[in-house]
Amino acid sequence: MSGVRRGPAGSRGSVGSRAATAPRTAGGVRGGGTGSTASRALTSVAAGDRFRGEEPADTPRLWHVTLSVSGAGAPLPEVRRALEQLAHDHPFLLTSRYADDHAEIRYWEEARDLHDAAAVALRLWGEHRQTAGLPPWEIVGLEVIDRATYHQRIAAGYGPAPATPVGVHPF
Question: How far apart are CA 136 and CA 69, in angstroms?
Answer without folding.
Answer: 9
